[in-house]
Design brief:
Distance between the termini: 9 Å
Number of helices: 5
Radius of gyration: 14 Å
Number of domains: 1
CATH topology: Four Helix Bundle (Hemerythrin (Met), subunit A)
Helix content: over 70%
Structural class: mainly alpha
CATH class: Mainly Alpha
Largest sheet: none
Shape: elongated
């Protein structure tokens, strides 16, 4: 996948370049950090969902949402926000479906990163 400006991609590279002032080294570093940190973040969010622990869900999804917004990964950030809101509102209905949506969206981000060429 080239560094196209296709806003339908899991990562909006045009927006990401704007956020990171066209610093491709910084972009690559942030991509590497996400690949390294995402699995543990998912485990934490999944644990909060399974335990119906709203405060931990709120906090862990909030952190991931910030990372995803910084990476211009809108769909994944929106999915994290849905879980964050559920935690904040202590509304644990449908959180398993929201978790599935987050996992799928973040997998698309991972796939995008793994296939990214400058």
């Amino acid at each position: 996948m080239s560094a196209s400006d296709n806003s339908n991609d899991a990562v909006n590279i045009k927006e990401l370049k704007e956020i990171m002032d066209d610093d491709m080294e910084l972009i690559q570093d942030c991509f590497a950090d996400f690949i390294e940190e995402w699995p543990q973040q998912y485990v934490e969010i999944k644990g909060a969902v399974l335990e119906k622990n709203a405060p931990i869900l709120d906090a862990s999804a909030h952190k991931l949402k910030g990372t995803l917004r910084y990476l211009a990964a809108k769909d994944a950030a929106d999915a994290a926000y849905a879980l964050e809101s559920a935690g904040k509102e202590n509304n644990m209905a449908d959180v398993e479906q929201k978790l599935s949506t987050l996992k799928d969206a973040c997998q698309r981000v991972v796939d995008y990163i793994n296939n990214f060429n400058q």
